[in-house]
Amino acid sequence: MELGMIGLGRMGGNMAQRLISGGHRVVTYDRDPEAVTASHGFGGEGASSLEEVVARLAAPRALWVMVPAGQPTEDTIDALAPLLSNGDAILDGGNANYKDSMRRAAKLAGQGINFIDVGTSGGIWGLTEGYCLMVGGDEAAVKRLEPIFHTLAPAPDKGYSRVGPSGAGHFTKMVHNGIEYGMMQSYAEGFELMAAKEEFALDLPAIAEVWRHGSVVRSWLLDLAADALKEDPGLESLESYVDDSGEGRWTVEESVELAVPIPVITLALQARFRSRQDQPFGGRLLAALRQQFGGHAVRRSDE
Q: Which of 45, 173, 247, 254 is an active site residue?
């Protein structure tokens, strides 16, 4: 099967490479000409514009968009749509908000273009391990594109599913990322607690390795934690600053709209916000209040 890959960042480039190694023809395009040139090294057929990508594909076409969520995705789809024909498909493998995906699907349907939202998990390991694909969209259109999904997944019968209509793929990926936030925070808190028990001098890399085998908390995230601790047991090379991609926020917002409590995911998101603050105002106000009502000692910033 053939398709166009729009966006050759690390994940997009890896996906294109996996597809090519699986026997698919991939016409590549990125705003960065050097990324397009680099794609030649793994068999990508580089194009210099979106128009060229479309022109080099036979109908019905499949265009996979792998650019940052928000305006970059919006602009790319708006630029592609006039170039496509009835029966063509645009696949969005980025972390878009599912409501945007539903809107885009409805708009493109009016032009006879199928919009497929592909919640994609696997990160930088997807090239060798395969990707988990949560796909939303028209059932017949998804069926036609299954050779692509089967190649990207860890195996033809594992790691891929059409989870529902348009928007369902990105909705499922949003919840997936929310769960990821909670799991990561739990590991972080547990290992911090063990590190604080100085009298035991616990070997955290060794404990992580023990937990990887037979434990009920074993997971791929634990495998990655074990690797990180092995490389830097005290994690002294890192700062306690944790960013977020936005999907955790969307998950929490959805829980409010549906009145479904998700306290662990919500607190994990809040912990990330706190990690980015140096001397947060709220903490200073707490100190001031304790001093005001109880005369408790405080630490002055000028001391």
A: 173
